Amino acid sequence: MEHLVYDIRCGDFTGAGAASRDLKQHLKRIGAESDAVRRAMIAAYEAEMNVVIHAEGGGRLEAAVSDGQLDVDVVDQGPGIADVPSAMREGWSTASAEARALGFGAGMGLPNILRNSDRMDVTSALGTGTRVSFSVALRPEATDQGARPSSLGVIAELCKECRHCLVACPTAAIRVRQARPDVLDHLCIDCTACIGACGPRALTMTDAPGALGGGDVLVVPPALLAGFGEHPVAAVVEELRGLGYEEVLSVHRYEDALRRAVIDLAATGDAPAPLISPACPAVVNLIEVKFPSLLDHLAPLASPWEAAQLALDDRSATFAVSCPSQRTALLAQRPTAQRDTVTAGAVREAALPRLAARAPHVAATAASAPRGCGADDLLVVTGVQHVLAVLEAVEDDRLPGVSAIEPYICDGGCFGTPLLTEDASVAAWRWGAVGGDAPGDGASSARTRPYRARPGIRLDADMAVAIQKLTRLDAETRALPGRDCGVCGAPTCAALAEDIVMERATRALCPYVRPVEEESAT
Amino acid sequence: MRLEDIARELGFTELTPEVSGARDTDIDRGYASDLLSDVLAHAPEGGLLVTLQVHLNVIAVASHAELAAVVFAGSRTPEDDVLAKAAAEGLALYSSPADTFDIVGRLYALGVKGNHA
Predict the structure, then answer these.
(1) What is the pLDDT of residues A327-369, one digit of tens each?
(2) Is the pLDDT of residue A212 over 70?
(3) What gap in Å lies between CA A110 and CA A130, rounded to an integer?
């Protein structure tokens, strides 16, 4: 049971509402249904305001969140209510002129609590005070309970425990304990942040043997085609075909098609603004885990890789993906496609000797506009910190004038994948210089799988258990020093507190925590 | 009708330009009251409130009642801290020189109705 206590001061009209607001946050954290949260908030706010308006001695709001139910007790040292049945009638009030001037004292507080709760009691004694208690039934909000698949690979023996991945991960999904990184699947969004931060390559992507086995089509990212120095795209394509493929297809034609479709959809005015492009599957995962309120903003379109897979359904295709999220998206759309993906890095390794054997090419020097800047009404955002900042701005409605956003987790977009060696800006420039950025002829596709909120931050699927864990989480967080040093193997003290509650770790992992006896003595 | 179109038609002054996303919100319900408990009890979710009250608690009440916008009648304008709080909560605020009766009448003519219409 989660137990919360708030002191309420009489006459504090400015600070009023703080208790009910905080209570709301707790109810959201345990995943309570939004209608129940709204009813509970209205009832709690009215009870809180009664103390502010009437009780000179102040009062206290105590809330207990237990299995499926919120119980609230508001006790004050006020004048008491002479006639409780009258007070329960709408319009009956004894509020002061000051309170009435502010719009309180409508004589609806207690009736409002009654209407928005499932049980209510009022006991009052003149000159002593009043107790208002009520309960609201809590049902869990529906979400997708399925575990998230991930294509991130861990090679434990390469880990040097530098812990750089802890800080790099945008969802605090990594722990480094027992000399190896562990990834919490329910939080991981399949991006490349940890791969880029991991010097010894313990966090990476791996390929099944024979993954580059030849076939009808090899689908590749522009970054791979532009990743062989001054060799032009035509030469690279020729050597990639030499690996056993009839055709080599750049995924940029589907990227361009998606971009046009997103801009067109945004221009119709029928979509929520700003419209968010699903070009980067890791961003989609991030929104599903951390920004469920933005799911409506995601354009209902397939990512470029998924669109390519749909378009090539009747041919044997190998997809040379440049990040884990692309592979996971392909596997989610076609579960049988396990052996049909290969990392772009592995393709580059295989093609490198073939290209090295060719005569060096004299570079063309075509100038190229930076990627994504073709459309004025499209905001392209790359890099995880910038993506987080922009998504928060969208959530808070702070992005006037932006009709569409194309966010990428990797710095520099897909050119910035750490699985290829060229720097993002150089690769993007070279892509233009080698003539690869001619308009493609791909088509966009409707999305085959709906966007679903994922309960990444929820503590437990069972609300009753989540409540117990939330109580312990508060206590554990207070017991930790707040240094966020990472020595325990978690990125922050809050993450360690959650690990303790979820039984992934113990408090003893913290080098700074004081023994319990000493703490209670101070 | 879109909030932005309503505001233009009725000559409202926009007080929270930061909450630009709300301009596209479709408004078809409204409520008028200066009693906050009454607002909590009866204002329709996603609707618009016309009120004389300009203090901080209006924002808390509008947020709890999940209203989309508040119009202050009689040219009343809240303090900066109230505007900042509304912006943080994503609540759009407007001001109008007209009185509550006239504002509601014009809103009704535009198709913004009450709970029981």
Answers:
(1) 999 988 887 666 688 999 999 999 988 888 887 655 444 434 3
(2) yes
(3) 12
Q: Do the bridges between strand B69-72 and strand B92-95 make them parallel or antiparallel, or are there none, so unpaired?
A: parallel
Distance CA A372, CA A357 (A): 34
Contacts of B55 (CB under 8 A, 6+ apart): A13, A102, A103, B78, B82
ipTM greater than cut 0.85: no
Domains in chain A with CATH codes: 2-137 (3.30.565.10), 480-521 (1.10.15.40)
pLDDT digits (tens, 9 = 90+) for A85-114: 888 887 788 888 888 888 888 788 898 899
Substitution target in A116, A397, A398, A403 with the highest count of B β-carbons within 10 Å is A397
Q: Which of A345, A343, A353 is nearest to A242 (CA)?
A: A353
Verify whether the Cβ–Cβ distance B41 to A112 is below 8 Å.
yes
Query: Which tokens is A310 given?
Result: 């749909």
Q: Does domain B3-109 have CATH number 3.40.50.300?
A: no
User: Could you tell me which residues come within 8 angstroms of residue A382 by beta carbon, excluding any fewer than 6 positions away?
Assistant: A407, A408, A410, A411, A412, A413, A416, A424
Question: Is B60 an interface residue toward A (CB < 8 Å)?
Answer: yes
Q: What is the pLDDT of residues A386-423, one digit of tens each?
A: 999 999 888 888 887 889 999 999 999 999 999 998 88
Cα gap A119→B44, rounded to integer Å: 23
Q: Which residues of A touch B37 (CB under 8 A)?
A: 46, 49, 104, 106-109, 112
CA dihedral A298, A302, A303, A309 (to 10 degrees): 170
Mutate to test the interface with A, among B25, B26, B36, B100 (most CBs of A within 10 A): B36
What pTM, to 2 d.p., does this model score? 0.61
Handedness of CA A9, A12, A15, A21 (dihedral sign): positive
Q: Which of A429, A409, A430 is nearest to A418 (CA)?
A: A409
DSSP characters over A344-377: HHHHHHHHHHHHHTSPPPPPP----PPTTTT-TT
Question: Rounded to whole angstroms, how far apart are CA atoms A10 and A32?
Answer: 30
Beta-carbon contacts of A368 under 8 Å, excluding residues fewer than 6 positions away, are A428, A429, A431, A432, A433, A437
Q: How far is B30 from chain A (nearest CA, A)?
A: 18
Q: How far apart are CA A87 and CA A303, in angstroms?
A: 59
- Distance from C-alpha of A182 to C-alpha of A201, rounded to nearest angstrom: 14
User: Which two structure tokens, joined as six digits, stand for A221?
Assistant: 């990212």
Question: Is the Cα dihedral A107, B64, A40, A11 positive or negative?
Answer: negative
Residue of A nearest to B86 (CA): A396
Q: Rounded to an integer, what distance in angstroms lies between the CA atom of residue B70 and that of residue A222?
A: 50
Give CA–CA dist B15/B71, Å, rounded. Answer: 10
Q: Closest approach of chain A CAs to the CA of B10, in angstroms?
A: 22
Burial class (CB in 10 A: 0-12, 13-18, 19+), A320: buried
Give the DSSP letter of residue A246. E
Whole-number pLDDT of residue A435: 65
Q: To the nearest whole number, what is the mean pLDDT of chain A?
A: 85
The tokens describing A129, both together, are 């005070």
The dihedral through the CA atoms of A238, A242, A247, A250 has a sign that is: negative
Least CB–CB distance from B40: residue in A14, A42, A400 = A42
CA distance readout (Å), A260 to A131, A240, A257, A380? 61, 29, 5, 13
Cβ separation of A46 and B60 shorter than 8 Å? no
